[in-house]
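User:
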Amino acid sequence: MIGLVVNPNDLDVAEEFFELFKTPWEPAVPGRKYSAVLCTDGPFAEYDADVILVYSSGEQGVDREAGVLVHPANGPVDIAWREWTFPIYRGVGICEQAGHEGTLKAGSKSIDCRYPAGDRIVRRIGYDLFQEVRYLLTEGQPVVWAGTPTLDLHIELLRQLLIESNVSFLEIPPRPAGYDFICCLTHDVDFFGIRRHGLDRTMAGFLYRASIGSLIDLVRGRRSPVEVIQNWLALLSLPFVFLRLMPDFWRPFDDYAKAEAGLRSTFFLVPFKDRPGFAPDGVTKAWRAVPYGIGEIQPDIMKAAANGSEFGVHGIDAWRDPAAGAEELRQLRTVTGQETVGVRMHWLYFDTDSHTTLEKAGFDYDSTWGYNEAVGYRAGTSQVFRPTSCENLMELPMTIMDSALFSAGRMNLDRREALQLCTGIVKNARQFGGTLVINWHERSLAPERLWGRAYMEFFEMIRKGERVWFATAGDAVEWFRWRRSIRFSETKSSDATTVIHVSAPCSESLGAILCIQRPSPSGVKMQELTFDGLSTVELELCPGSCRHEQPVVEP
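Assistant: Predicted structure:
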């Protein structure tokens, strides 16, 4: 078990960090033996561990005693570690130690070092871990660092420090048993049928992009001749579509049911038609309103629900007003009959109080935490997390959105560039786990966008290896809630070996993985066991910094 020495003001974010890096820990108790002590506040002499992990950008008393000079530098600072480069936002401490070259680099300078303190080893990391985590979970990363899983790298660094320090520890990775990661196929429904649009802004944009815009894209190499023909045929069919002599070609439920081959997806639906809501600057932008409400499309919703689709609220004013959010939530429940409901805000409107506001409105989860103009990790992770201001609401971060990839004025990528960028994000998911949340809008498979080929290529890339759990947004959140419910307790056997007891208040059909790291004379050994919560599991680990492998008590 890790003993934690932390400022009380940081305890809330430390607790959330250790739900993401799911490993046994507790606030350090003087005199109790720990496998390691992680210290971010004050001296550690009274705590018993062979390995002390000190995270701080400021100088600590033991630094000078060990002959280490720490020079604070303001953030953000780009840090190189192994094959990664990631940002430290709140400042770093440059470590100067004679004869020692660190592995965390800010340019040519080291921000880490290692030294003895009595009979213990100190691993000194020159940044404030929980201040960094708080920044990521509350303010979020700027767009320039969108593609970097910064919080996951903080977890990976701590994991590697424990391994390098020969510490035995147990971890529950953020992936269900038998899978590398979770993928949620989600769709924001801003439009429902082109027949609902007369000579409005949406129709004008469609007419331009399907005609002249398609030809321009063809010349630029961004569209194929076949796609241009598809768009022109759609244009020619419009009179017949409006006369109901031909089917409407904006049919999100049918289109995605066909494309996703029976997998369950989540549609975020606008609750009320012709309501633009308020922008963050207090202005009402009329073109934000949509010409449908979920009450008008109930038959389509019920058909999609029968095929396994889930529905959430594509919120209008829920982000800023609990009463408005509660009204939007009631409308979706009335139409769909769903009790557990999530939300993603229309146009991704959000502010610093929105998580609390959405919780007060009664939502189970939010999935707004992403970017309009980029793809990646606004919170630095793809794990589901609980905002520190909330008691129940969970955040399911949005990872990849089609309009961010392809729209002019945003990333404006072509299909090949987008696929290459998304390949790296999928690679990260296979390494770190978590939930890859894709948002492909309702009309993106249809004319004039025709982003279906990119979607299918991306979809097939994700499915490669067949170790991905395709889940609805609600199911993914529920699995992470269950993972959070898993508890650890510790006892000592007669020979002072640590016994970790793993239990959960209920079972989970997919289960989780108990990953046990044990150092041995031949190197670190890792063992994985499946845990479904049906019974308590007991695992024996070495106390402190372990040099000899111990047997596992199988469940």
